[in-house]
Design a protein that fits this description.
single chain; mainly beta; Porin; 4-stranded antiparallel beta sheet; 62% strand; elongated
């Protein structure tokens, strides 16, 4: 199994190699953009519904849809290689539920974080205006605080394990490049932290029982981005013609 150090060393080596490959006259060049990313429910990933049964009472935490917004900075070194970074606001949402024979209590809470990713991208030109890319890198995420929520029969206390946590991020997507209206992007990103990021303690206040849930924090997003116009994209389209 590949350890964390090997992944980080590999990513840094790729970034150094890409920096040395800036040979084209138009490169390197900088591109700025904005993005919106719906965070897909954890039921589709390796962070499913977590459930514990104790004395005919079910304690559960379920991942819901969330979202991420942010700014993107991309440095193009050649027509086929780029490095990308930025800063993102992420909100993961969960539903906590306490269910017994004669009652159901539930509440929704969110975990807010801030992320700075660093990825290396490889492009393949499919058509005149359309490029496919794949990327791999690391992302560092900051968690401002622990969170809590309550309902009639329970108290949920979600405590962050650390204020900062790195992870692996991978992406695949498609660029649609225009002559003078910028670039439109659609893709998908998978993020997996190197360890669990929160411990959630669910207490049944009526009987005093307390159960622990470890939240992994991995997620899949659908990515929508817009990159502001740059002259080199128009030049590439003209070259294709």
């Amino acid at each position: 199994m590949v350890n964390k150090s090997s992944i980080i060393i590999l990513c840094i080596s790729i970034l150094i190699a890409l920096q040395n490959s800036a040979v084209a006259q138009q490169y390197p060049s900088n591109v700025f953009g904005i993005q919106f990313k719906p965070v897909i429910s954890g039921n589709l990933l390796d962070d499913p519904i977590k459930s514990i049964h104790v004395d005919a009472v079910e304690y559960s935490i379920e991942r819901l849809f969330g979202h991420s917004v942010g700014m993107v900075f991309r440095r193009d070194y050649t027509k086929k290689f780029s490095v990308e970074s930025g800063i993102n606001f992420i909100k993961r949402r969960y539903e906590v539920k306490l269910e017994g024979e004669n009652f159901i209590n539930q509440s929704i809470f969110g975990i807010v974080s801030y992320e700075i990713p660093l990825t290396a991208l490889v492009y393949i030109r499919l058509f005149e205006n359309i490029y496919m890319n794949n990327s791999l890198g690391i992302a560092v995420e900051w968690y401002p605080s622990s969170v809590a929520t309550t309902d009639t029969n329970f108290v949920l206390d979600a405590q962050r394990k650390s204020w900062v946590l790195p992870g692996v991020v991978a992406n695949v997507g498609f660029d649609y490049r225009t002559r003078n209206k910028g670039k439109f992007y659609f893709g998908a990103t998978y993020k997996r932290p190197f360890s669990n990021y929160y411990n959630a303690y669910l207490t049944h206040t009526t009987v005093g029982n307390r159960e622990k849930f470890s939240l992994l924090g991995s997620f899949l997003t659908a990515d929508f981005r817009y990159y502001f116009p740059v002259e080199k994209y128009a030049d590439e389209i003209r070259e294709y013609e």
